[in-house]
User: Fold this.
Amino acid sequence: MKPIVMAALLATGSCLALSAPTARAQTAETQFNIPAQRLADALRAYSEATGRDVIAASQLLEGRRSSAVHGRLSPDEALARLLARTGLVAEHVVDSWVLQLENDPAPLGVPANTGSETIVVTGSRIRGAGPVGSPVVTLDRAAIEKSGYATVQQLLQSLPQAFMGGSNETTTGVTTRNGTGNDATLGSSINLRGLGTNSTLVLIDGARPALGGTGGVLADISLLPMSAVERIEILTDGASAIYGADAVAGVVNVRLRNRFEGAETMLRIGTADGDMTHVQFSQIVGKTWDRGRFVLAYQFSNRGALRASERAFAREDLRLLGGPDYRSIYANPGTILAADGRIFGIPANQDGRDLTPGELLSGVQNLRDNRVDSDLLPRQRVHSLYSAAEFELTDNLTFRANLLGAQRKFRRDGNVTSFRTARVPVTNPFYVDPIGTGEPVQVLYSFVNDIGPQIDDGRVRAISTSAGLEMALDGWRVQLGGSHGVQKGKARTRNIVNSARLALALADTDPATAFNVFGDGTANNPTTIDYIRGSITTIDDFKTWSAALRGDGPLFRLPAGDVRLAVGAEYRREAFDYYRILDSNTLTPVAGPYPGFPGPRHVRSIYAEMLLPLFGADNARPGLRRLDLTVAGRIEDYNQFGRTENPKFSARWEPLEGLAFRGSYGTSFRAPQFDELVGPAVSVYSTLSVPDPASPTGETNVLALFGYAPNIQPEKAKSWTAGFDITPLSMSGLKASVTYFDVDYRDRIGTLAEDYFRFLTDRATFGGVVTDRPPLDLVQYYYDQPTFSNPINIAAAEVAAILDGRTRNLAREHQKGIDFDIGLAPEVAGGTLDLGVSGTHIFSIVKQLSPGSATSDFVGLYASPVKWRLRGRLGWAKGGFSARR
Assistant:
């Protein structure tokens, strides 16, 4: 008997479905004009014409062609004609039509005794049952192609549930909030709900890839080839009970085209208003034979950089747009800061060789727009290769393996560190003293004209492999498999100033080799410029290994259907190495591993998930057309911080046809990244004088702690959702879905180091990280540490407070909001119109930045999600033609 595939019908309506984006129920006769063609394409046309959801495993459709359907027919008759001579039949199950092999003795929902793959949808480990009660968004191949997006990151970042903040190529170098300072290789991530890129779990065919960034802060979705993606499933709900760590905001599972058959070539050329070009080429081929199949895909993508000068808003001087002037005080020519604190602008159009005090511009602060000469988006060049194979070893045993490899190179002109305050001694041959004190002067100076713009470039290489065996045993599926992933990134920042060599060049007495900061950057010796030019190189290496034994199948039957169980045990090992070559602060480069990183992480876990169908077609009652419950739980044990347990409960209730209510509750957690477990090895303890309105002088002497605190523990969250789905039979073509979500996130790992000057001026917000009148022995402990510095030269007894700016379990965040999608699909001009809007509205993001401090609502503020994200859609399709906007 040929192997069969069980079709999966999700309770949320999100599945591998051949359907119009907004389907409508229909029973009256309709005019059909569907030619004989590939069965998958014919079924899509049928679904667009009727509004019916037709669900099928992709391998059932491959290699099959439809019969032609013409004339005015009922939907049932048209579908029967379409499937004639295909060997497939359609069964009506819960508002959808599920395809299976003709004369198939296996009941729907029970795997046949074969080695073929069944559909497992993100959010559940139980085959043939979606995540009951949890919202899932599914973008199948048809939706991907109609979207018009060229890359996975563009597609995912367009979702209303996604927040652009966090680690990605557009934010690195702009701020260090939300982990953006840890993305030196300019990768792209997905950040659901704005809870952080490391709070969204990314999977590739259900497996965790190796991570990128310092400490493993993000899954770099820019490495995924769009041409090899079959569908993307987005679970917008906490799912640590199903998948373990990091699934606090949700899960993004990228399913690849493992069962593609034939050949497909794609060439894409695009531009952004003529300012940035994008060229993409891809080729995929697939072959199927009696007991096996093989797929090979390659994609090349080359995108040019987008210059800030091409966008009017991308500048620091916003006065022409009605905004303020944020230009930098580090300019060229620069500004002299005299010994008495007065400023003197250096005049333009002179090289600084013959400058006199009388030519200086008293009280003038020279400014420079450092943003306008930088890149908003870097140049990115990506090569991706994917292959997958499947072999039916016996009727009951199947072997599968796949490999995904990618390389990405990047280059960007930055604007961050090519300026600084230069201290010029009197020995400098170009020295100018504006007030005649004969003391050193400071010059606020931009070195861009001398050493060139800061350049960030490098590459990322990643490879992910997995293999496994699957056996069918009396309705159960048992899997044994493993995966391995490696991601190596190398980033270099060039054209920065080496402060140690600059100090020597400024003190040089020879006019031919001394560095001159009193001109416009045109007169310095090229040899001297090369001498002060520095760089920073980082190399990160993340490796992951995993093994899993899993099984799922029916336990016993209730009147509404089988009680199904999924159980499993998993092991995962992760390791991270970080190497630096610093040529920025010492006369010679300093190379070595970053100190303090922990050794490999070992994670052992067990989980179980049970589906209980309480009411269904066989025992429905008034008001109880269908009722499903799921219970799941997972225990994970980490060698670095111990054990966590996370449960989840979900329910879906259909009181009548076309109306369903759903809800879920569960706990989730995020494991600390490797860099967050560094501890005191790289901490810095320093005395400072900071603003304090309670002090008679307006300032207070403090001891500030920076770096990483010891004993950082996992972040924890409680989340629940409640929502409903409506597909009213009386309003053909209308679909509506609304989900309320509530995420209470505790023990968030973070730092307030950027705000330390506000610690004493805003005690209501930062009081939890301030220790007033600290014990002398505690202060002395920090004074005795090798990383302590005392720039203001005060004794331990003179420290009035300790300010804790270290990274640690610090904050609490409570987020509430709704997701919604409303669509209509009427017939227009002989085709189907797709009209709708989807969005996310966040009611509040209440944060407590430090223990015991006051709470504030951060929604809509800088570096936080906006209140509203909306996306409208308008499309029309007829036959094989479609247009969307």
